[in-house]
Design a protein that fits this description.
With 147 residues, this protein is an alpha/beta fold. It has a single domain, classed as Nucleotidyltransferase, domain 5 (2-Layer Sandwich), CATH 3.30.420. The chain is globular, with a radius of gyration of 15 Å. The mean pLDDT is 96.
């Protein structure tokens, strides 16, 4: 049996102002292949763009993969690896009993994560990680189309 391919993904998202015009980006790498994705929206939030970047990247995979996903968003990483378990147990309510923001996006992301073996990695934003800096540039360009 052939093991699932290993895909490395970097994602980013942002808004200016927040909320406001937003952009997201992802870079997917498999062997010698590299694919860049980006997009945006005129009225959104930073957190929504972070989620859309990861969702779109995972949706672009055509079969189950082992994914190493890199993000500079603690919201995204902690949400999908930790907080989501409690949100689902609490019928999509936070510890403070208010509705989870971006529930529809979290549900989409959760479904995609179930299709793959995803390991989440946090990287410091705007530092010396070349691919994190690239997705930041791509997301900024995508956002600027809506300013």
């Amino acid at each position: 049996m052939t093991p699932n391919p290993v895909v490395k993904i970097y994602t980013d998202g942002g808004c200016k102002p927040n909320p406001g015009a937003g952009g997201w980006a992802a870079v997917l790498m498999y062997g010698d292949h590299r694919k860049e994705l980006s997009g945006g929206a005129p009225h959104t939030t930073n957190n929504q763009m972070e989620l859309i970047g990861a969702i779109t990247a995972l949706e672009s995979l055509t079969r189950p993969c082992q994914v190493e996903l890199y993000t500079d968003s603690q919201y995204l990483k902690n949400g999908i690896t930790s907080w989501i378990k409690t949100w689902k147990q609490n019928n999509w309510k936070t510890a403070g009993k208010s509705p989870v923001k971006n529930q529809e996006l979290w549900i989409r992301l959760d479904g995609l994560v179930q299709q793959h073996q995803v390991r989440w990695h946090w990287v410091r934003g705007h530092a010396d990680d070349e691919l994190n800096n690239l997705v930041d540039v791509l997301a900024t360009k995508a956002r600027q189309a809506y300013e």
